[in-house]
Amino acid sequence: MTDTTPAAPAAEAEAPARAPITRLWAYARRHLRLLAIGGALSFAGGLVGLVQPLIAMDVIDTLAANESLTRPLLYLAAVVVVGGALSALGPYLMQIAGQDVVLTVRKDLIGRLVRLQVAEVDRLKPGDLVSRLTSDTNLLRTVASTTVIGGVTDTFMILGGIGLMAWLDPVLFGTTMAMVVMVTVMMLFIMPRIQNATVDSQKALGDMGSLLERIFSAFRTVKASGAEDHEIARLEAAATTARDKGVKASLWEALAGVAAFMPVNIAFLLVLGVGGARVASGAMEVGTLIGFLLLLFYLMGPISGLVASLSQLQTGLAAIHRVEEVASLDSEAAQSEPRTTRSGGPAQVAFEDVTFRYADDLPFVHHGVSFASSGRGLTALVGPSGAGKTTVFSLIERFYPVTTGRVTVDGVDVRDWPLEDLRGIIGYVEQDAPVLDGTLRENLVMAAQDASEAEIEDVVKTARLTELVEKLPEGLDSRIGYRGTTLSGGERQRVAIARALLRKPRLLLLDEATSQLDAANEASLKQVMLDAAERTNVLVVAHRLSTVTSADQIVVFDTGVVRAVGTHAELVEKDELYRDLAASQLLTAA
Ligand code: ADP
Ligand code: MG
Question: Which residue intervals define the domain ABC transporter in the entry (predicted)?
Answer without folding.
Answer: 349-584
